[in-house]
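Worked example

This section walks through a single chain of length 349. The input is the sequence exactly as stored; nothing has been trimmed or padded.
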Amino acid sequence: MSDVRVIISREPDREERVVTTGTTAAELFPGDRAVIAARVGGELRDLAHVLADGDVVEPVAVDSADGLSILRHSTAHVMAQAVQEIFPEAKLGIGPPIKDGFYYDFDVARPFTPEDLKAIEKKMTEIIKRGQRFSRRVVTDEAAREELAQEPYKLELIGLKGGASSDDGADVEVGGAELTIYDNLDPKSGELCWRDLCRGPHLPSTRIPAFKLMRNAAAYWRGSEKNPMLQRIYGTAWATKDDLKAHLDFLEEAAKRDHRKLGAELDLFSIPDEIGSGLAVFHPRGGIIRRAMEDYSRRRHEQENYEFVYTPHATKGTLFEKSGHLDWYADGMYPPMQLDEGWTTTSSR
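Given that input, the structure is written out below as tokens.
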């Protein structure tokens, strides 16, 4: 068996090491449970990645930015597996990591309830305890279509291989040149427990240290109102239980200072449903504060020699067609107003 030379890079140190052919990234960091993936030649890889001669390998710790993204994406997969174990008819959408957490979209017969989320959390805990192995497998487009024939949204993604957008999260599944499926395997028997189309990388196993499901919401498939409405579950995952607790405590404290809550409690403003979401009506107390802020802003601008101009609050709809806003926000933000002259305007709000 021939040898290969690799460089282990732990900033600011670099170590050259000679290893045998077939050595994986995991074997470079034995016993270091904080390392959950590796950056090889600048690309994030699973620890099971087999190294080649000349590879530069950087360990990825679970509490690093890359490590947390991998942890959260892996947790999204565990959640999707739990959903399909409880709701076998559920069709899979996309499950990318996001700031401080993750989400996964599902096509289900009805919206998820708070009781459903509790049941999914419980099932996730069971899956985590099983310690299933994440196993990456390269597949052809044809093989993927055959395996995922019952997953219509995954079939659509296969056609995007290599050209998926990060805007809608599709790149976490088919963003690379290769098409890959991740199998969740029983750690003892190697039996297939679940699988998903995914670019990866993932944790070595489903041993998620700390997670919590936060809420669910409706979301259009790939962010377009022209597509079917799916059900999205949001969650958060962290490297330790203490980190999770600190995050939840932060959210609790932030909720106490939410401007919508304080606005009502201090009688500053209200947001009536009759007017619309996010459109505030300032009460006398709030009016005093707003006037003081506006006066200060105007005074500071004048001191810096700014000049003031004013634009209409309503325009012809063609202006918003040119800007692209009308296509995206026609129903929610720009409802048309029919005027006596017979032409339509759009409110800019």
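What to look for: The CA atoms of residues 43 and 57 lie 9 Å apart.
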